[in-house]
Amino acid sequence: MKYFAGFLGVAAVLAQSASAHYIFSKLVLNNEASADWQYIRETTRTVVYEPTKFTNTYDNLTPSDADFRCNLGSFSNAAKTEVATVAAGDTIGMKLFYDTSIAHPGPGQVWMSKAPTGNVKEYEGDGEWFKIWEKTLCDENADLTTNAWCTWGMSEFDFQIPKDTPPGEYLVRAEHMGLHGAQANEAEFFYSCAQVKVTGSGTGSPKTTYKIPGLYNDNMTLFNGLNLWVDKAKDVEADIAQTPIGDEPWTGGNSGSSSASSSSAFSSSSIASSPSSTSSASSAPAYHWGSSSCGNY
Ligand SMILES: [Cu+2]
């Protein structure tokens, strides 16, 4: 009896903290959510749902580390994580731990990377990644600190595995970022990877691919300098365009971006492969918004 009461107390505390921060722990197949960490590699972090940041880090993890691929220590859980079979063209989802919902302002993305050996359980994610899904601003006239963002309030990302995806085993990485601390280089990244076997006869090839780490750096104003309380939607869009988030997702075929895209100047090769050599001083935050905590969220 005493043991049972103790368990409830711990669960209540965990559920309460999880309402602020989040991590994708469930894969959604045929509209049904899996168990936590059944198909998604569990991180070994002290508190699984805390964000990854460039500064004031949790567990010393930053977006410049190899574990920015699938979260801290998660490769050590790859062997015991199941591989979900999904047909190319199917829509699947990744859902948050405790069914919490996103209450930080920022974009959401889904990335894929093919296991070169054909066995995703032995793949660390050090190969090429491509983007298949993206949500940024949905209402430019709404509040940039909350519901201007498409992902505001979502508890899962639903996305299509492109019909042209070649068969094989893949890491599927869902990611959300909170930009409410970007004015102080405290953007927050929430992400994890599912292990998926794609079936079908796709022969497509994404033109634009990326390496992780290398995807993001803190010379990018979106993560270090943007101020959602002061800046306008067009500023946010300009900052997005200078990152891989501004690139068109691959939805099939043999090319990564549409001809209408203005992101060609920020191709993956120029962004992802070169450690930025520009001075960070020029993009230092123009505003500091007091404490960097997430107390209001
Ligand atoms: Cu936060």
Task: Report on the biggest sheet.
Answer: 5 strands, mixed
Here the CATH topology equals Coagulation Factor XIII, Chain A, domain 1
Question: Using only CA atoms, what is the Rg?
Answer: 19 Å
In terms of quaternary structure, what is this? single chain
Number of helical runs? 3
Percentage of residues in DSSP E strands: 15-25%
The number of E-state strands comes to 9
Describe the structure.
This protein has 297 residues and is α+β, with helices and mostly antiparallel strands. It has one domain (36-273): Coagulation Factor XIII, Chain A, domain 1, CATH 2.70.50. Helix content is 10%, strand content 20%. Strands 3-9-8-5-6 form a 5-stranded mixed β-sheet, with no helix packed on it. Strands 2-1-4-7 form a 4-stranded antiparallel β-sheet, with no helix packed on it. Strand 1 (24-29) and strand 2 form a beta hairpin. The radius of gyration is 19 Å and the shape is globular. The two termini are 35 Å apart. The structure holds copper (II) ion. The site of copper (II) ion has 7 residues, from loops. Copper (II) ion is lined by residues 21, 51, 104, 178, 188, 294, 297.
Short summary:
It is built from 3 helices and 9 strands.
